[in-house]
Amino acid sequence: MNLITGLLDRLLFTAGLLVFLQIPQFVDHYTQRYAGYHQAVADSVAEYQLSADAHYDGDLGLMIHDFNSDDKAAMRDMGGKMERDRDRLQRMTAGLTVLRGSSLIDKLVFLGEDLDRDIARATLEDFTPGLPLSSDALICGLIGGITVSGLLNILLWIGRQLGTRRPPRLRTTTPPPPPASN
């Protein structure tokens, strides 16, 4: 049994190591895709700004307000799209700053809080696992291997504790002493 347990421990450590090695690489691929989406939104907002420069003295907010206030539904829809794009550009610019210039921990915190599910799904669909050798990847891999191995060992320890537990002793009641004779 110890041979099987040891082998299972090593296999799970290796699996955890290999899976967690992929995290920094996935974050890099996500960042590249995120930057592409950011650029597309920035290009759209730049086009809106050119129109605002030509017709609203550069006041994009006023142009969006006019679109949103128009009687025609198509114009209001366009105003809503411009407003969403402008807001998204601000959020994505801040996100790109984190993804491009922060530590892996900060990037993971950002992704935990502000993950764009569509971008993540597309990144995952195109993701090809590799064997990255960056320090971040090696640290993540070791953390993953140790975590998975540790969880296995905790479960095995609990199993051993439950397996070696003795049933509780039954209390035997002793009859009360006979009454004292006078």
Produce a short descriptive summary.
Helix content is 79%, strand content 0%.
Molecular structure report:
- There is one protein chain.
- The chain has 182 residues and is an all-alpha fold.
- It has one domain.
- The protein is 79% helix and 0% strand.
- The protein has six helices and no strands.
- The longest helix is centred in the N-terminal third of the chain and has 54 residues.
- It is elongated.
- The model has no long low-confidence stretch (mean pLDDT 89).
List the helices and strands and how they pair.
Blueprint: H1 2-55, H2 60-69, H3 73-101, H4 104-114, H5 117-126, H6 135-164
Helix pairs in contact: 1-3, 1-5, 1-6, 2-3
Question: Notable features of this structure?
Answer:
182 residues; mainly alpha; elongated
Rg is 31 Å
The share of residues in extended strands comes to: under 5%
Which blocks of ≥5 consecutive residues have pLDDT under 50?
none
**Count of helix runs:** 6
Strand tally is 0
Overall tally of domains: 1
Indicate the mean pLDDT.
89
